[in-house]
Amino acid sequence: MVIIERRGRKRKNGARYPSGELRGERAPSPAMVAARMPHRGCVPQEHCVNPMAETELGRMQLKGKISKGQHDAGIKFASVVARYRAIISGPRAILRGGRGFECLGLQDCPDCECTRRKLAYDDAYTALIQAGQQAAKAVRIVAIQDQPCPWLLRSPLDWGLAALRQHFDMEDDGKARPTRAWVAP
Fold first, then answer.
1. What total of structural domains would you count in the chain?
2. Three state DSSP letters for the chain
3. What does the radius of gyration of the chain's CA atoms come to, in whole angstroms?
4. Mean pLDDT, to the nearest integer, of 15-21?
5. Structural domain containing residue 158
6. Per-residue pLDDT at 66 exceeds 70
7. Domain for residue 184, yes or no?
8. For a pLDDT cut of 90, what percent of the chain falls above it?
9. Between helices 113-129 and 154-167, what is the axis angle to 10°?
């Protein structure tokens, strides 16, 4: 028997349809993709596809280290900071970390978005700083920079998030770990 070489590219190996076309590979499930993400490795398996596992605050809530009220307060503070950062560089249509806005930059603007954003940031930061410098540092690391909370700043993080939750008038489910009670002066 004589073997004749075929011209062109070699045929790809794999299962084929009756028409001769190659069957495509099945796409991995979203759970499989999420389980492979390194930042979601510390989250319990049943929560790994949850969108909250994308941020450090969300992962902490899914693991039961902070309550829903603390999580919501941290997310709200992060959005206030992003909105404030959008104005300190000047108004732009597109800005990283916050939605841009159009502003004329007039000093005597009667309804200035810049002033509202700055006042919201100042009020939130004042409430946070009343919980202490360590609390402000912990909230900045976790909520703004989206980094894991250092072990020594775990309690100050609770105090800072409690202060922000109280500042933003948010309800809490009370499922956070017990810590020293923080009371506003």
1. 2
2. CCCCCCCCCCCCCCCECCCCCECCCCCCCHHHHHHHCHHHCCCCHHHCCCHHHHCHHHHHHHCCCCCHHHHHHHHHHHHHHHHHHHHHCCCCCEECCEECCCCCCCCCCCCCHHHHHHHHHHHHHHHHHCCCHHHHHHHHHHHHCCCCCCHHHHHHHHHHHHHHHHHCCCCCCCCCCCCCCCCCC
3. 25
4. 87
5. 66-167
6. yes
7. no
8. 34
9. 130
Query: Which token pair is 151?
Result: 């072990």
Report the pLDDT value the prediction gives residue 93, as an integer from 0 to 100: 46
As a whole number, mean pLDDT of residues 113-127 equals 91
Residues 68 and 54: their CA atoms lie apart, in Å, by 15
* Identity of the amino acid at 172: D
Q: Are residues 57 and 148 part of one domain?
A: no
* Within a domain: 23: no
Q: How far apart are CA 157 and CA 148, in angstroms?
A: 11
